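Instructor's aside before we start: the two examples that follow are unrelated to each other. I chose them only because their records fit on one page, so don't look for a connection. First example below.
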Amino acid sequence: MRLCIFKKLPKKQILLILLVPLLLQTIEYAYSMDKWQLPSPQIFSMTRYALLIAALLPFSAFSQKNTSFKALFYNVENLFDTIDDPAKDDKEYLPTAKKQWDTKKYFTKLNQIGQVISETGFPEIVGLSEIENRVVLEDLIKTKNIKGHNYTIIHAESPDNRGIDVAILVNGKQFKTHYTEAIKVTLPGDSAKPTRDILYTKLVYSKDTLHVFANHWPSRNGGEERSEPNRIVAAKTLAVAKDSIVKNQPNAKLLIMGDFNDYPTNVSLKDFLGAATDPALAEPKGLVNLCGPLFSKGEGSDFYKEKWTMLINMIVSTSLLKSTKGFKAINAEIFKKEFLLYKNNKTGIETPNRTYLGDKYVGGYSDHLPVLVNFVWNK
């Protein structure tokens, strides 16, 4: 029985277990040779046992694996620094602009985002959209709420005219990042504006791999119908990237998250990407939109025309949903706490507590609510 236990322990731990008793035996012998006054045999036995336990504790803690994980996606609504970047159209968010975006407001917003990450339980994977650059991410992970929680930054500059990007924060103590790529989305037409890249990363925990895509698809400016072709292009681009992984690894585990500027029932997600809104309707090696059930119940991440809508979507592969070993996705949930909401006292209607109303600073968090995916780890 003891040998079976040793087989499961790291070599360094086994070595320490063997050396601690030998060291104590040597000390005991040295005392006896010099005829010094010794503690009772019982005391020596207790000391050996206590030191052995102390030696084991760090290794035991290190060898334990998490039994649950979280992934978060949050559109943070225009997280810009206060410095003009000539290569970007960031003039709206400068101290001299109408919005008077200054250092105090900037750090207030950073701390608010840090609070959301903290209040959601420090998710191991955090997807963000509408961030200007790597600098704001570096400032974010230094904020008081999340400083010291081992977040590493995955980011690439997008060609978007406004300069807003997507990014992923990962718990670097838990995950190893094996590969990262910014996938370009080329919109049709000679006069088409450049849009955000899709950010892909391959994460490894223990011996399991998670393929993560962070998205911020083209907006609905000009109306849903007129702008829909742009999101269909983004869906097709993502589908190609997804298929290239699944072709070589049929049971690959995928997490596709982001602000898609479309609902779970829109054709871009349901038909062109192939994300079913119900697990029972998914293809055997297909995708499931975990936000589908929430949306069907009238819940949402955004508020538009007097109702909640779902522009933030969390999509997983069926292999991740039905997994019996390693990562297994359970469900999605909207993080809808009072501090993230603004209540209209006249109507009683609650909406996301945003940073600006037009050019008026109201000091809220974002015009979107964060969405989480809960995972368990099966040994």
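Example two begins here.
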Amino acid sequence: MTFIQNLILSWLIFEIIKLFFDHNLKKVFIVTAILLSLLTSLGWYSNQVMPDIFTGIMFLSIINLLFKEDWSKEKYKIGGFIIVIVLAVLFHFSNLLMLIGTMLIFVLFRGFFNVHKKVFSCLLFSFLIGLISSLLINFTLEKKVVYSKGSHVFLMAHLNDTGILKKYLEEYCIDKNYSICDNKEDLPGRLSEFIFESDIIEKSGGWYDSKEEFNQIIKQTLIKPKYLFLNIQKSLSYTFTQFFNFRLGDGLSHYNKDSEPVCSAIKSKFSYDSKSFLNSKQNLWNGFELKFDQINFYQNTVLFVAFIFLVINFGKDKKLDRLTLFVLLFLLLNAMSTAGITAVTPRFQSRVIWLIVLPFLISVFKEKSMR
């Protein structure tokens, strides 16, 4: 799987290089790929069997569509870009939200980004196919038409993480007969504890039977003005914090036999391989032994230099300006679509922060080629 992920990445990056260079394409691509792998978070996420890398992959596909000039040629590539976007939407709910946000950005800033009407068509088509496919898959498996069968748990955990849930329960448990009211004094502190480490969900009926109650509480916090304002305030605060919160190493540690949700999933789907996984060198090795502070220092230095360079050179090349601005807006969308509805987690922004370095490298290589 990681081989396929890297293969898709390589293809998309090469196609972007072709948009900016006419000569030395292979050389520029190889150097760009090496530098992105060594100096940013890209290599960490492209080599994990996780959906995180597909957020960046979706961005690269959208850029290839945005900057395409001749739509009568290489239609098979357009089809490839659409397929990749559909896969990204299927792999993670945040990508669906980010695709909606991207289409909104292109509507609001259509003139600046010079968005061709066929770009809208491709993105809307990808959105619809991804959404319908997800509904069909869930209907086949669960016999219910739902996009995400666990969204109520994550949104409830978000309310708990922000403190809104405790505030709401303290006010309404007197009149409402919620099962979670019996445990409102024992609510866990963090989102991960609420979902994976505590028994609060089981005490509220479990993942499936808690859905009606959780959705009712979520709905009430969105229609009541006081709690709606709190939700907006907390989401904006979480988005701002998440935008600047990127750190390698988050989630990289070993698991024991009772670890949730990784080990339970492996036991359920790959029972014969669960012992091999637990005893593997990869799992027994303690990820915390790696000096992430030093690695993050190098990455942050590169990101700082890239950002300052792009700011100083903004306005010199319209095509690069469009790429740079879209990168920044995409990073904002990423923070909003993740922490804005869940919790601030370094992994979320780390999965896409490497995108800042891409226009920086392209700009540097372009200046060098012009000398």
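The chain has a mean pLDDT of 88.
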